[in-house]
Design goal:
Blueprint lengths: L14 H19 L3 E2 L5 E3 H7 L5 H5 L2 E4 L5 E4 L4 H10 L2 H4 L4 E10 L11 E10 L4 H18 L4 E7 L3 H15 L8 H9 L10 H7 L11 H16 L4 E3 L10 E11 L5 E11 L2 H4 L7 E7 H10 L12 E5 L2 H16 L4 E3 L6 H10 L4 E5 L1 H6 L1 E6 L5 E5 L3 H16 L48
Bound molecules: adenosine monophosphate.
The site of adenosine monophosphate (AMP) has 17 residues, from strand 6, strand 10, strand 11 and helix 12.
Length: 477
């Protein structure tokens, strides 16, 4: 019997995996611009890291951890989130003593939560996250929110809503918690078992209970904003003012508490609603934490961070056709018939690959019809046909699969010719030189910039200078 994939996991295949790579690359590039460096931590850690860090009252720790004893009888947990591991790494490696603060790291990789599998919820999923640790200024929080927004904008999201709330400082929160306990005192008996537990451990979490009966009871509950200290309110006002300045639309959400116990101060979630009104829910979220580093045995440093769910980002981008053009299609299918043709085909294939083209060959004798069907299915751009006659004449056929135009090309010219076709092809779409050309490029399709080296024209394409091109022979100037 075939072995099935574990419940709640999924294989991420080919173009979907490429979509994830693309998303992670955009996230990393923007985080780099904001001064963050990568940090990779293990995907398993001592269980205590999460029970102490994320908090016993969170769903993650109380219900969802993948915990096991290793062969040395140590309690190990597959990481359910990224922040605790980053903080542990900072403490383990004493990074706070070696580098200037704030320490700014980003991470990406799989997370594990034993959740009930449902649409968009997996037991192994992927996150991209950032943490900025060590400078306790509301402007650090603002920077991190701006970074999250900028990542989404660069991925092509247009109607992002930022849900935002402030949990205030520890004094504000303690007062609020006791007000909630007073409010829920005569109601908690009728509420779900989780809420009974939350009432004792962290009554704030009652506010994000998903049970409709319990939700109805929270409507008239006291609001956090009534308990914010003067300085917490002032900080929150600065954040909102800056969001206005940067024209980031936000919604104040009294019931936003986030599922992890370590948050304090400003917390937020990015959610996405399409222009047609389809609500995709939270793409990611985060917030400020004041005691996590100390609680895990480090110095009293505060931090701020967020995490995006890669599955969530990808599925929205796929549904909304935001990622299609990032998918790779084949450049050339070399179709060979017969063993002699095969040896010429592999030579040509290698030469084209050295020039950066994605080349697919066939090593079985299939009909040309079925080979063309295959090329069509993978949206290949050109087909090269080498049969017995072509081998004898040392002339192959090149067919543009979009225009259906076909031409004969001598073996000796094949590589330059086919590479040239691609330069023309790319050039028709867009000059890849990255410079602003407000003049006509006169290179006739072989713009030097396409060769991957720096355009040296400083805006005036080199070809206009009339001197020898240094690109290696293909350029027409
Ligand atoms: P959290 O760490 O719970 O704040 O989650 C941050 C983001 O990770 C969410 O907004 C989702 O996009 C994603 N996420 C969280 N849990 C899951 C899951 N079980 N499956 C897929 N994505 C998830």
């Amino acid at each position: 019997m075939a072995i099935s994939i574990p419940k709640g996991t999924h294989d991420i295949i080919a173009n979907e995996a490429r979509g994830y790579d693309y998303i992670e690359e955009v996230c990393a590039n923007i985080a780099t611009v904001y001064g963050f460096d990568p940090l990779r931590t293990p995907i398993f850690e001592a269980t205590e890291l999460f029970s102490r860090g994320v908090g016993e009252s969170s769903d993650i720790v109380s219900k969802e951890m993948y915990t096991f004893l290793d062969k040395g009888n140590r309690s190990i947990t597959l990481r359910p989130e990224g922040t605790a591991g980053i903080v542990r790494s900072i403490i383990t490696n004493k990074l706070h003593a070696q580098a200037d603060l704030p320490l700014k790291y980003y991470y990406t990789g799989p997370m594990f939560r034993y959740e009930r599998p449902q649409l968009g919820r997996f037991r192994q999923f992927h996150q991209f996250g950032v943490e900025s640790i060590g400078v306790n200024s509301i402007f650090e929080d603002i920077e991190v929110i701006l970074l999250g927004y900028e990542i989404l904008r660069n991925l092509g999201f247009e109607n992002i809503t930022l849900k935002i709330n402030s949990l205030g400082d520890s004094m504000s929160r303690a007062n609020y918690k006791s007000a909630l306990q007073t409010y829920f005192k005569d109601k908690v008996g009728d509420m779900c078992e989780d809420c009974k537990h939350r009432y004792e451990t962290n009554p704030l979490r009652i506010l994000d209970c998903k049970v409709p009966f319990d939700q109805a009871l929270t409507v008239d509950a006291p609001k956090m904003k009534q308990f914010l200290s003067e300085s917490a309110q002032k900080d929150f006002d600065i954040v909102l003012e800056k969001l206005d300045t940067f024209e980031i639309p936000y919604e104040l959400d009294d019931h936003l508490v986030r599922g992890l116990d370590y948050y304090s101060g400003v917390i937020f979630e990015f959610s996405y609603i399409t222009s047609e009104g389809k609500d995709y829910g939270a793409l990611g979220g985060g917030g400020h934490y004041d005691r996590l580093v100390k609680e895990l045995g480090g110095p009293a440093l505060e931090g701020v961070g967020f995490a995006f769910g890669i599955e969530r980002l990808y599925s929205v981008m796929r549904d909304e056709n935001m990622i299609e053009e990032k998918l790779v299609t084949d450049d050339v299918h070399i179709m060979s018939i017969g063993d002699e043709a095969r040896t010429d085909a592999i030579d040509l294939g290698e030469a084209l690959r050295m020039m950066g083209l994605r080349v697919i060959l066939n090593y079985e004798d299939k009909t040309l019809k079925s080979l063309f069907k295959r090329a069509e299915r993978s949206q290949a751009k050109f087909a090269v046909i080498i049969g017995e006659e072509e081998v004898k004449a040392e002339v192959l056929k090149v067919k543009n699969l979009q225009t259906e135009e076909q031409e004969d090309v001598a073996y000796q010219d094949a590589v330059n010719h086919i590479v040239g076709l691609f330069k023309q092809h790319h050039h028709d779409q867009e000059c890849g030189c990255g410079h602003d050309h407000d003049h006509e490029c006169e290179c006739g399709g072989d713009c030097k910039c396409e060769d991957g080296h720096e355009c040296e024209c400083g805006g005036d394409c080199k070809c206009e200078d009339g001197h020898e091109c240094e690109c290696g022979g293909d350029c027409k100037c």
